[in-house]
């Protein structure tokens, strides 16, 4: 054992990675020294980005004594060197570093090419097909992954000092490819504009470090655009000139006059638009709002493509076919959809929207006109199709993808005569613009939604703006029909909207005293710890069996917040430990993905046809550690390491992410610690995601606070004014 603090420089092969943090690249590893005087492996620890088993490294640092683990080297600097002997090469390739090569193929390749292996992969990869089992496609994948890893290391080393981990670097590489390092060095502000998860402050830190001036035009303009983006993240699509300048000045710690000049430059360049008296908007949102207004005007004015339909007679036919007597407002909704090219149907749960949708589809099918049905999420589309008796799909799949853009648009309209969009409250400005512009002239478009739910995650308040503009036919469904009157969930939801507490209908009780015959139960738990215990017991104990529910497939925890003891991250860890405790999975981006895990996509990925909010189950971890395979509603999808950066465990999800979905059993924690999010529309949205049973777990005072808080933040948009001028 050397003296603690004694400098050391040592080369060797990394035989085992004991611990690695993808976020900050801190690593603990076992090093096999090249120096034969070392008879045992040496533990090394420190910041070592993108290292892999089998890699040859030169570490510099100091000896240290750890009270539990003994002698180790605290690494200050390290250099990565490709292995030069067959042992190191096989270990290196077998680590899962290169897609398409696991331990078995590593052994075969090294046996074939020996110490020349890495040169073959790098510059003569076609020869890999000489190895039994490797075809041209696998050889291509190996070469592509090899090149990506080389570029990844360069970008990781460049960005590690800014706290950007490997998972984020993979995302940067995926977006910018071989130009990644050059972009980081020349224009780091592109990172915060084009890479989700990298904020302005991180990009600004890089920019200032490489010498970009504090008051440079590039920095000021980037700050202004970020201020606009922050306002959009809060749901608005526009803001006053002065507010944007004030936000930018605060963010940049810069003079307001300089920021105002930056706004004017962006107005001149067209990156920012002036849409009203002192009101500004980013160019993309200005374009999207104009497209919405223009598309709805076009759709409304065109001659109908539908075959001749006697609407009143068709409604009577649909009544007889369904053997049900429609309420006046239901008949009115069907008539409006048939007689107008654009119309809206709005109402809460139990108000008969499903009956209307099925009747419309029956009428259209009888006229040999199959409608195109779509919803913002996969689960919503599946539910819509089951209700209507016609196949439905997500809006993204309806529009299709081609070359990274929607296939159907104003130049290539959808091949249909009737389009119905369900869960329309989830439509943000950009998605609404895309789907409305793809509706052909003469086709009918019907929006179905509930304006009392949370607004879209993305910027805008499209459904509400359309309704409040007064320019289009709107049918409001307010009556709860007989099949819904017995539902405690529907009654509780109506009470929430009316601002009534309603706890007397499901008085708070201990978990053991819950009445499982009720639709709604309130389980008392007034601390985060008690709440977590109760939620885990509900989803993992005998309760799921008594409810006749699969705790993973049928039960979903919906939480108001991500962080904290009563946040989504903590609930996910606790529920996973109870329902799927295995740990033999693939670790990436701070998450271990194991077979059986419930996962959710957090942003749209058009390459694999999996979109924000889609949920699946892990069915396989690939043997070469290149990724996992997950099942999404019967469709198996391979998810590479790069793809996994956008996935999270989904035993618990946010109420926002649950929009458009429905689950047999919903468990919803509600505590005073959630005070920032205790709003009437949040509570209403979460509760109405439950199809059969809802369990509220928490503090009754938090429920009362949410029911009493109808002051949801108003979203500033310019869409209503555009629609009013049609």
Describe the structure in your own words.
- The chain has 726 residues and is of the alpha/beta class.
- The chain is 40% helix and 21% strand.
- Strand 10, helix 16 (378-388) and strand 11 (392-394) form a beta-alpha-beta unit.
- Helix 27 crosses helix 28 (700-708).
- The model has no long low-confidence stretch (mean pLDDT 89).
Features:
726 residues, alpha/beta, OB fold (Dihydrolipoamide Acetyltransferase, E2P), Arc Repressor Mutant, subunit A, Rossmann fold, 4 domains, 6-stranded parallel sheet, 5-stranded mixed beta barrel, 28 strands, globular
List the helices and strands and how they pair.
Blueprint: E1 7-20, E2 26-33, E3 42-47, E4 56-66, E5 70-81, H1 86-93, H2 103-113, H3 117-123, H4 136-159, H5 166-176, H6 180-186, H7 189-194, H8 200-209, H9 217-233, E6 239-240, H10 241-252, H11 256-269, E7 272-276, E8 279-282, H12 283-301, H13 311-322, H14 328-339, E9 342-347, H15 353-366, E10 372-375, H16 378-388, E11 392-394, H17 395-399, E12 401-402, E13 405-406, E14 418-421, H18 429-437, E15 444-449, H19 462-469, E16 474-477, H20 482-485, H21 488-497, E17 520-524, H22 528-540, H23 542-547, E18 555-559, H24 568-579, E19 586-588, E20 591-593, E21 598-601, E22 615-621, E23 627-632, E24 635-640, H25 641-644, E25 647-649, E26 652-654, H26 655-658, E27 663-670, H27 680-687, E28 690-698, H28 700-708, H29 719-724
Parallel strand pairs: 3-5, 9-15, 9-16, 10-11, 10-14, 14-15, 17-28, 18-26, 18-27, 27-28
Antiparallel strand pairs: 1-2, 1-4, 2-3, 4-5, 6-8, 7-8, 12-13, 19-20, 21-22, 21-25, 22-23, 23-24
Helix pairs in contact: 1-2, 4-5, 9-10, 9-11, 10-11, 12-18, 13-15, 14-15, 21-27, 22-24, 27-28
